[in-house]
Amino acid sequence: MAATENGYARLDGKVAIVFGVSPNIGGTCAHFLARQGARLALCDVRREAAEEAAEFFRGRGFEAIVLVGDSSDEATAAGLVAQAVKHYGKIDIMLNLVGNQYRDEVLDFNLHDWERQLKGYLTGGMLTTKHVARSMQEHGVEGSIIHIISDAGHQGEPGNAGYSAAKGGLLNYARAAAMELARYRIRVNTVSPTFVDHLLWTYPLEWLNPRIHGPSNLSADDFIQGIPLGRFCTATDIANAVVFLASDASAFLTGVDIPLDGGARTKYWPWSPGKWSGVNTDQYVAQMKVRKYGVPVDELKKELKDDGSTGGKRTN
Questions:
Q1: Where are the domains of the chain?
Q2: Which candidate in 88, 163, 173, 293 is catalytic?
Q3: 163 assigned to active site
Q4: What predicted TM-score, i.e. pTM, was given to this entire model?
């Protein structure tokens, strides 16, 4: 039986490579993996994001290396994996959440933005899986590969067709990969959050749908009022699921998606739970604690830049 701490199976001696390490979802997941004993290889296309995360983790006594590059480019993805293996000797855990959203209506979506989304989310997911799984197989590692998807990858979000297509494609790629890689005892699973609350403090709400008006426009209130549990998903929710999937506690799970949506996908379709509870985004934001790497920002002021940002409109 795996050793446990704080209700989680320990990850001592394991190496986790994380693609996409902003202070929100990626950084929080990396922090939770490190707290359970994993050593980290932090990959991001932005050096400042990876270095900021590494500084945070090292300051708490965790081991982390910085790797910089675009994981949707094959030579770069292979090189990032090779660097991690050269440093640590192996990779046991992979977490991928790289990509950028470009929202628009179906009738107006331009090909460049469509292809950028597919390349970032879908091609990047394929390449990271391919090269990490090769390394696991070569080193005899019975590893865990985890991709962050989205509710949009299951249902298709109006006004966000490109993102929905890319995430839906990655979801089914992960399922197929899980079947193929099972012979090597390499597990592939996914996590699908609904609207994540860091978007409320990272970007102005109008950025979420900058060009979309009419029936395809969804407000933050629309999102929260459709969630039976009455709140948004948090980066901590996602990190808890990732640690579970990375650990031996989930040793017999593969090809599985964990829905982190507060019951939104399961509810009876015409029911709007928020209509009766009266919950709205203003109330939610008023009581919300802003967090980075899963820690309240007030505790991080000396470690983060003055504006608390690492640049770029990122969803991870």
A1: 12-297
A2: 163
A3: yes
A4: 0.89
